[in-house]
Amino acid sequence: MTNDSYTLKDIARPSGGFAMLAVDQREAMRNMFADSGMKQPIADNILTDFKVNAAKIISPYASAVLVDNQFCYSEIVKQKAISDNSALIVAGDLFIPGNGIPVDNVCIDPNIDAQEVKQNGGKALKLLILWRQDEDAQQRIEMVKEFNQKCHSAGLLSIIEPVVRPPRLGDKFDREQCILNAAKELGDLGSDLYKGEMPLFGKGESKTLLDAAKKLNDNINIPWVILSSGIHENLFCRAVRMAMQAGASGFLAGRAIWASTIGLPDTELMLRDISAPRMQYLGTLVDEIMASR
């Protein structure tokens, strides 16, 4: 770590909790626009404009905003789209498509210069790790350690995001157990923050969900937050509440905040009317739970 390294306080709310916005989705976001009925092909500038607008409108209520290099990082920096009270996080991962899906594999993006990110006001980098039970654990561990080194040598925070996937070879897939196994494998390697999947997709009885989140908490030895992919937006507030009661410190989410505005007319208006109030409420919820600890 350098002497001027950032700490988790730099991406947290004053309460110490995290209410962070993600706009780093790539081809998955293009697919969301296509699924909304928008005329295809969906041009890159449509994604860029949406991401920049979302950052401008929602960041005043977010402790940090996660952006991607492919579509919006440079434009967000150029337009100073992120509010002064919010921090910039840059995705340090390169998505490799294959087998008919937008993200079949992931590596550390060699085009992301950590020092340059810091000069542009960035506080952290984020790395997605696809976790499959039939793939080499040591390879994943080495990638996380390399990523941590890349972040810390520049004084940036390291955020890792393990997401479980079914095995390539057709073995049985127990999502819930794999989420725990991924946390046990990667949750104590020197990263600063763990961005995890919510057990049970946030569904089911409260006690069942809380117990599952506590099991996840027991396997992570660093602060952690939940993501929103796969969780119905109407269940996300409860998922945040349950995860935090189990030991999480907030969330880093995109779809639960802005997905319902994609494809609607007057996107900026919808982001103001729907997404910004949702983010504001979630931030208040995070603060309340942090204060009760």
UniProtKB/TrEMBL annotation:
SMART domains per record: DeoC
Keyword tags: Lyase
Protein family per UniProt: Belongs to the aldolase LacD family.
InterPro entries: Aldolase_TIM, DeoC/FbaB/LacD_aldolase, LacD_aldolase
SUPFAM superfamilies (UniProt xref): Aldolase
A molecular function GO annotation: 6-deoxy-6-sulfofructose-1-phosphate aldolase activity
Protein name: Aldolase
Keyword Lyase: yes
UniProt entry tagged with the keyword Transferase: no
Annotated GO biological process: 6-sulfoquinovose(1-) catabolic process
